[in-house]
Amino acid sequence: MPLTKEKEYYKATRRAVAIVNSSVPAKEKLDAIARATARCMESGVSIVLLDSTKTKLIHNFSWGLPKFFLRKGLLDVHKSLGEVPLGQPVIVPDAGSDSRIQFPEMAAKAGIVSMLGVPVMLHGSAVGSVRVYSRKHFEYTNQDIAFVTAMANLVALALGSTTSSQTEGATKDIKSVAPSLRQLRSVTFAHPSERDFANILDFYDIEWVYEPRSFPLKQEDDKITEMFTPDFYLPGLDLYVELTTMKQGLVTRKNRKLRHLREMYPDVKITLLYKNDYDKLLAKYGGGPLAQTRAHGIKRVLFSATEIADRVQLVAQQISKDYASRRPLLLGVQRGFLCFMADLIRCITVPLDVDFLGISYYDRSDDAAVKITKDVDLSVTGRHVIVVEDIIDTGITLSYILGHLKERHTASLATCTLLDRRVRRLADVPLDYVGFEVPDEFVVGYGLDYKEEYRNLPFIAIPVIRKQRAKEK
Ligand code: IMP
Ligand code: MG
Questions:
Q1: Residue 435 CB–ligand 1 contact under 6 Å
Q2: Is 293's C-beta closer than 6 angstroms to any atom of ligand 1?
Q3: What pLDDT shows up at residue 171?
């Protein structure tokens, strides 16, 4: 005899409670909840969670929904359904004619007729939602809503246990569960370099989503004939990143697609990391194929000692002018800032303070997060701080440092860098004082090193970096 709906709900809830109360990893709990909800509701189900900017909802766990539907685009928390900002369940009886559906064509293509969204409430605020997508017209009863609400509460319990064990209860105000989702995501990377890249992002606490969106590029009649799915999306930076670790021939094709994408979606920010850039990025942290390379001598001098002195003088003049009525605290970032800082302060004519900050770099051997290895000794609260860096590359170090300083309520916060490699930027950090812009090549000298070498060169140059073994694909 078939179970009544009520008994079925009861049974599924009882099972889900047991799973959430067990010691399996949180992602298995969430997977199980999505699956059980889908089975009982005879629908597709997705657990969507709020990103750290609290503006987007990201499909994290789903069941019974096609990939193209999950990759349809990022859900805007205010445009989509609305159960999250409301903190209340929302019912869409007819998806075809409802303005609360953000991607109506995709819903139609997936055959979705009715929808129910129930917010996931954690410590009093909505952090996501359990969404039920039905392929037939569904009059959701109070009983159905109560069941999905119970499941949403179990999602919150599963999430709550991971967030509290990670932060040891330190953060009562949970703004977003996203950063703690790292361990939850069941991501299968297509390429090991993508995992490496994800690890670097995790280290700097940069939230990422793997392949969340496919952009249709070409359409014939009703059929999409060409698509592009960037590898990563970084919600905090609102940036898509595509890694190309493949042969040059395929890169050309990818480049064409990317150009196409930029034309069709001008609001989408996307960056391409070429194999070479990517290897250099990894080598910076001692990994990848370039890690075993050695530098021999200098290939080319970029800026002579005199050119540097002239430029430093100009930057110092500008700072002296801008800080005529405020005493700045110049905060150097270890260790490349050394020469620059020493020359800079001697050219600044207003009274100032100097301190420095040490931070740890990504180390592939452990999965710790970025750490302050030497904090500021002077108090920065209420001070006019200028962060002094040697070079801004991806910008992720500076972005981390600025976040760290903002928490301490400085009176103002400015940035000064000797070199700016703008082409490699990932994090969009504001730069107030810049010495020189540099090309996309590794540079040394005047404080900058390659594996601790060359810091004492009086000029800035491109070193000759040779692979130890010439074998590299
Ligand atoms: P970002 O976080 O990628 O901006 O990295 C910035 C840091 O990486 C700098 O402060 C440098 O310590 C180091 N770095 C980046 N590019 C170079 C380079 O070309 N030569 C030496 N160090 C570099
Ligand atoms: Mg540095």
A1: no
A2: no
A3: 40
Of 338, 341, 289, the residue nearest 316 (C-alpha): 341
User: Mind listing the pLDDT tens digit for each residue in 436-470?
Assistant: 999 988 999 999 998 888 898 888 999 887 655 44
State the Cα–Cα distance between residues 182 and 288, nearest whole angstrom.
23
* CA pair distance 173, 360, nearest whole angstrom: 27
Residue 61 phi/psi, 5-degree rounding, is -135, 130
Pair 112, 134: CB distance under 8 Å? yes
Q: pTM of the predicted model, to two decimals? A: 0.68
Determine whether the shortest distance from the Cβ of 63 to ligand 1 is under 6 A: no
Instruction: Output the residue whose Cα is nearest ligand 1's atom 15.
Output: 393
List the catalytic residues. 393
Q: Can you tell me the distance from the alpha carbon of 29 to that of 19, in angstroms, rounded to the nearest whole number?
A: 6
Q: Which of 65-74, 147-156, 252-261 has the highest mean pLDDT?
A: 147-156
Take residue 74 and report the two structure tokens written for it: 């990022």
Rounded to an integer, what distance in angstroms lies between the CA atom of residue 397 and that of residue 370?
9
Residue 173, pLDDT above cutoff 50: no
